[in-house]
Write a structure and sequence with these properties.
The chain has 171 residues and is an alpha+beta fold. It is 19% helix and 37% strand. The protein has helices at 2-18, 153-167, and strands at 22-26, 31-32, 42-47, 53-65, 74-78, 83-85, 98-109, 115-122, 134-136, 141-147. Strands 1, 2, 4, 7, 9 and 10 form a six-stranded antiparallel beta sheet that branches. A four-stranded antiparallel beta sheet has the order 3-8-5-6, with no helix packed on it. Strand 5 and strand 6 form a beta hairpin. The protein is globular. Residues 1-12 and 14-20 have low confidence and may be disordered.
């Protein structure tokens, strides 16, 4: 029994090391309302890990704009706007469920709380004053890469069970 518990602990620790590189965040349903810092903007706070270092931000999003808002006005600001991503840069027209994918390098080191804030806002023009300018449709994701990420509880549980199965002795 002690051997099984020890193997499960080793498997959990190994899982922690493996799960620290990448975090996929579902941003489906988030909306852009106004300029950066506007009280109506939606902000997503994500627990990444205390002192985590984010080196790359990738996106694969489906964007819809409203009224006369253009796609290239939609913006995501990471960590207090230290990294700014405009997924549809250059598309100065309205869109319906248009897909945009790309990535950018980042150098974000999180503080002791390990929280990354992502603000969704408009840049250049706020065409729908007091209303939603754009929205991220179903299947929209942002992927963070780096080190020091906290593993999800589900990945630890699966790896722990794998360690139990692997360490089980045949009798």
């Amino acid at each position: 029994m002690k051997k099984t518990i020890a193997l499960a602990a080793v498997a959990a620790i190994a899982g922690t090391a493996m799960a620290q590189d990448t975090l996929v965040i579902d941003v489906s349903g988030f909306n852009s309302w106004g300029f950066q810092g506007a009280g109506s903007n939606e902000i997503l706070n994500v627990l990444v890990g205390a002192g985590a270092n984010i080196t790359n931000i990738a996106w694969d999003v489906n964007l819809t704009t409203f009224d006369i808002s253009w796609a290239d006005e939609n913006t995501m600001g990471f960590a207090g706007n230290s990294v700014v991503v405009s997924p549809a840069a250059g598309d100065a027209f309205t869109v319906f469920n248009a897909n945009y994918a790309g990535n950018t390098g980042a150098n974000i080191t999180l503080g002791a709380d390990g929280i990354l804030d992502i603000e969704f806002y408009e840049q250049g023009f706020d065409d729908v004053a007091g209303g939603i300018d754009s929205t991220y449709e179903a299947g929209s994701t942002v992927t963070l890469s780096g080190s020091g990420f906290v593993p999800t509880p589900g990945s630890l549980a699966v790896l722990g069970l794998g360690g139990l199965v692997a360490g089980r002795r045949r009798r």
